[in-house]
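To illustrate the input format used throughout this study, we show a single complete record. The first block contains the structure-token representation of the backbone; no residue identities are included at this stage. The design step must infer an amino acid for every position from geometry alone.
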């Protein structure tokens, strides 16, 4: 997908918001960050939340709003998953933190992505660095799990918790990309992307770009084909067969999904878990179904044979369906 324009052809970069006001969703967070920009003052920050929800984008947009033309010189981005030990704190981070800012800026920003990958000794060393060089540098830490950040660092930061991006915001943003790229995004195609991405805007944009490279018309069938994902209709059919006591038919249907469509057992299991909540089924029996799904998921993570485990899950569903009565239509 790359051509002469390089990264500009990667849509996640091409359509990355340039300012905080352009960030998709999270209005309550961006408004607080814009207040820091207006005051030209900033504490240490901790961005926590799922992948693809705008943590890195918000940090870069904040730096651009604060430093304008000098943002590159006053903004250092590091990925803690690449350098997890104490040496990265003692060298890269400390060397950048101790130098004075460029231009009329009063401080610089170190953005440490995936900070929850840092070892505890490295975090302890960074805690002292954050304190010692706070007059010349501010830290923005980004992580998926804030519980993995030691308490002394959390207490030094203003914590911003990013949630999954709302479906409406993702849909509107994809429609905008579609207009600029000359795409015909059907309603079912958009719904398929929203279903697959589950609030991950980056995944939604990448999925749209892959689909657009094949056809300017974006439809549901194409989305599920290129992503190798399980459709809601297939999942409901599999659940209905198993709960209806048609174990052999359910097993054959599962075989088709695994072998002919190349779907993974974990993806099918996640799709079943998602659809169970919408079943017209007694609440107590839903609890039993979820309990069995959790047990099978644990076994798959431990390395069990996915075919045997999924067959056992369908068998349990058939037993529960027989005890409860046929699945209500």
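Output of the design step:
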């Amino acid at each position: 997908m790359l051509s002469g324009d390089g990264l500009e052809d990667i849509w996640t970069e091409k359509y990355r918001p340039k300012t905080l006001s352009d960030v998709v969703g999270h209005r309550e967070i961006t408004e607080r960050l814009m207040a820091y920009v207006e005051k030209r003052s900033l504490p240490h920050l901790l961005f926590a939340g799922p992948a693809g929800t705008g943590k890195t984008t918000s940090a870069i947009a904040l730096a651009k709003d604060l430093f304008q033309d000098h943002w590159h010189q006053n903004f250092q981005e590091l990925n803690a998953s690449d350098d997890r030990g104490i040496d990265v704190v003692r060298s890269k981070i400390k060397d950048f933190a101790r130098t004075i800012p460029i231009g009329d800026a009063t401080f610089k920003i170190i953005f440490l992505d995936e900070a929850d990958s840092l070892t505890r000794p490295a975090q302890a060393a960074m805690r002292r660095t954050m304190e010692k060089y706070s007059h010349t540098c501010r830290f923005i830490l980004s992580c998926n799990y804030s519980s993995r950040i030691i308490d002394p660092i959390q207490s030094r930061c203003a914590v911003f918790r990013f949630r999954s991006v709302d479906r409406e915001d993702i849909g509107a943003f994809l429609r905008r990309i579609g207009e600029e790229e000359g795409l015909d995004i059907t309603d079912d195609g958009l719904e398929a992307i929203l279903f697959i991405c589950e609030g991950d805007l980056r995944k939604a944009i990448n999925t749209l770009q892959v689909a657009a490279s094949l056809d300017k018309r974006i439809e549901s069938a194409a989305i599920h084909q290129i992503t190798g994902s399980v459709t809601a209709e297939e999942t409901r059919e599999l659940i209905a067969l198993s709960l209806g006591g048609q174990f052999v038919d359910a097993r054959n249907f599962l075989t088709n999904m695994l072998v002919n469509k190349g779907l993974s057992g974990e993806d099918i299991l996640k799709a079943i878990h998602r659809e169970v909540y919408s079943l017209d089924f007694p609440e107590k029996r839903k609890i039993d179904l979820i309990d069995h799904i959790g047990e099978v998921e644990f076994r798959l993570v431990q390395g069990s044979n996915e075919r045997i485990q999924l067959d056992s899950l369908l068998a349990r569903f058939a037993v529960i369906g027989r005890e409860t009565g046929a699945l209500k239509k």
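Structural context for interpreting the output: The chain has three domains: 6-161, 167-227, 232-324. The beta strands are 44-48, 75-79, 108-113, 137-143, 157-161, 184-185, 217-218.
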